[in-house]
User: Fold this.
Amino acid sequence: MPERRTPHRRRLAIDDIAGHSSRIAESNLDAALRFLDAIETTVDLLCQFPEADGLRAKLVNGFGNHVVLYFVTPETIDIVRVIWGGQEIDQIALQCK
Assistant:
């Protein structure tokens, strides 16, 4: 089994998570809290099973319209952004390098 990595969240990813959870909380606080838990669960899974190089994407568990973009490094899982399905992924991916 591959060695477990430590997550690193970039500032844009932290801002993305805060923004998405705030928008969800406007109509459903419980869903916003579930979203935050789902992000942590998703990141934890990435740390356990990174399995790839380059920019990667993983759907947020239970929030399939949200995607975690990340890089795998020898030491960490570098969480770059958390986006929702309606965002322009090509432009976002260019900003992730």
Notes: The chain has three helices and four strands. The first strand starts at residue 6 and ends at 9. The chain has one domain: 6-95. The longest helix spans residues 29-48.
